[in-house]
Design goal:
alpha/beta; 6 helices; 4-stranded mixed beta sheet; 244 residues; 5-stranded mixed beta sheet
Length: 244
Amino acid sequence: MNAIADLIIEIIKLPFRFIRWIFRLPFIKGKLGEHKVSKLLKKLTKKNGVFINNLTIGNEASSKTHQIDHVLISTKGIFSIETKNYSGRIYGNDNSREWTQVLNYGRVKNKFYSPVKQNETHIYSMKEIIKENISINNIVIFLNADIDKVDSDYVFTRREFKRYYKRMNDNVLSEEQVVSIYEKLINSKLDIKNKEHVKNIKIMKKDIDNNICPRCGGTLIGRNGKYGTFMGCSNYPKCKFIKH
């Protein structure tokens, strides 16, 4: 009888174990993270702004597309928000092309492309659509990771971004500008499947390897800067893309 009871208990546990497994999948964790940020943006824009989730923009014909997690537009300005649902400790700074995720007490290290630089490309594309001399705030939100070792003014936890946003000046944009910018971005939104976007990212990386600027299509040429030699776009200063 004890064996039968134990079997029944194990069978009852199966759905809960499956649910836990589902919630650990990277795709599901990412979607849950984006949902948490969406809830925050809904509160922040209740009185003086709007926001867009999962905005895909770019030139579909030339395979240059950019998928932006969130765009917040309010009288406080425009915010391009990249959401990261990583765990562990993150190391990186604004001058590094690659950042590092450290897990399992330092035994596991994963490299990933700088989300700050990733967002810079998103911002460039949005400016091409908006066509106004307005700054766009580069915001990266890590939901679960330890970001104490990240040296960047653009990286926040959800709570830190909430405090940062509330402290900002409230008359950067007029209400008319908020509506106009929102309409420009929404009208430029591409109806493109995620698989196509992933394919376009691979094309963009291939362009970078071949010294082609992924933002404007210019040639990446050698330049000397404060931090040494780097590859920069030939269309500088209009395009400020840098390949480290």
